[in-house]
Amino acid sequence: MAPRTGADRPARSTVTAVRAVLLSRWGLLTGFVLAHTWIVLDAVTWRGQIFGDVTLYEWWAREGLRSGLWPVLDYDWVYPAAALVPVTAPALVTAGTVAYQAVWTAGVVALDALALWMLARTAPRGRVAAWWWLLFLVALGPISVGRLDGVVAPLILVSLLLAARRPAVAVAVATLGAWIKVAPGAVVVALAATARRRRHLLRDVVAPGALVSVVVVGLALAGGAGERAWSVFGQQEARTLQAESVAATAFSVARLWDPSVVIAYNDEIFTYEVQGDAARAVAGALDGTLVAAVLLLGLLAWAAARRRPDVVPDVLLLAAAAALLALIVFNKVGSPQFVAWIGPPVAAALALAGPGARRLWSPPALGVLAVALATQVLYPLAYGPFLAGEPWMVAVAALRNVGLVVLLVGAVWQLGRLALSERPAEPGSR
């Protein structure tokens, strides 16, 4: 190897200076402002495609304020009870659709700012992880501010960052998130599986989770919800495969040669679904498979934590990532915004992973960025060509879904490897 010369020093100095600027407080603030300015302006450009669901949120809130008839309290709803809070809040301070959308977007950006601030403060690699988080949000695109998933994704990240030092608070945050949209419940499963002792499980997981749930359900029951407090868990049963879901990939690809495969608009739930008995059979099988997959992952994480107590924080991050991926891969819904769920565990891992696990997260970090970018191409950039069955877009969607499966397999593989590894030697043993 040729010795380094003095000519290399200016280049190294420049790289060091740029790195210092990027990782500085002002560098991160600038990155946050630029990233979210682009995301918000792009969301406004797409308007209906991005804010269609937000308009529906506004209708629910305005109708509740006008007539006193509320989702969950007076009729079944597709979201858990606590989703009423972020859905109603913008309507309390606005009088029109544009203003509602502006306040909604500002709320999501504020939650992203909180998550980024906590991430950047996490030693020793929080600021590097913060830049990855910003890249992930840009790659995913405007859908990250146009759905309830934009509310729960930063809550997932906050709960994972709190997990090591304040597990009870982490469970409380994740449980509240799960009562807004179910996905953050995966963090609760991971924390329960990796609790060191039974008393930790009861004190740090069961108690705070139960407390938050009792408050949410209690308020819903006090408002007259009755059995509707749990209605969300039965709202998805009649659905078939959403067109872009992972499980619909084979049907989507088959459109390239089989005209009998039909994707049609469901005007009751405002989404495109694969039609036919085969699709309905797959969708029905996924109802039980999804629950079984999350429970099995919890057991695998439990085994890994017991076998390798020296790396429990890494097991927690792997378990959370695997469970969140399973909620996408085995889900018959599979909306594009679900990908927002898998950025938080990767960002937290880049900041917190132990010395032996840091290199393991580099490939999935790149893979998640690729999946996020492909998701933005799928929706909103080329959703029309996808629905029309244009080969190039069918291929992009299929590769995106294969990427999600590969990421899940990789997380399960790492958990399994830890579960089957040798126990570390006890201190002082020979």
Question: What is shown here, in short?
Answer:
With 430 residues, the chain is mostly helical.
Give, in order, the helices and strands: HHHHHHHHHHHEEHHHHHH
Strand order of the largest sheet: 1-2
Task: Report Rg.
Answer: 22 Å
Q: Estimate the helix proportion, in percent.
A: 55-70%
Distance between the termini: 42 Å
Please state roughly what percent of the residues sit in beta strands, choosing from under 5%, 5-15%, 15-25%, 25-35%, 35-45% or over 45%.
under 5%
How much is the average pLDDT?
92
- Biggest sheet layout: 2 strands, antiparallel
Per DSSP E runs of 2 or more residues, the count of β-strands stands at 2
Low-confidence stretches: none
- Number of helical runs? 17
Structural class: mainly alpha
Q: What overall geometry do the principal axes of the alpha carbons give? A: globular
Return the domain count.
1
Transmembrane segments: 20-41, 98-119, 131-162, 168-193, 205-225, 281-304, 311-330, 336-353, 365-386, 392-413
Protein name: DUF2029 domain-containing protein
Keywords: Membrane, Transmembrane, Transmembrane helix
Organism: Xylanimonas oleitrophica
SSE layout:
Layout: H1 8-22, H2 25-46, H3 48-67, H4 84-92, H5 97-120, H6 126-140, H7 149-162, H8 167-178, H9 185-193, H10 198-222, H11 249-254, E1 263-266, E2 271-274, H12 277-307, H13 312-329, H14 343-352, H15 362-381, H16 383-387, H17 391-420
Antiparallel strand pairs: 1-2
Helix pairs in contact: 2-5, 2-6, 3-4, 3-5, 4-5, 5-6, 5-7, 6-14, 6-15, 7-8, 7-14, 8-9, 8-10, 9-12, 9-13, 12-13, 12-17, 13-14, 13-17, 14-15, 15-17
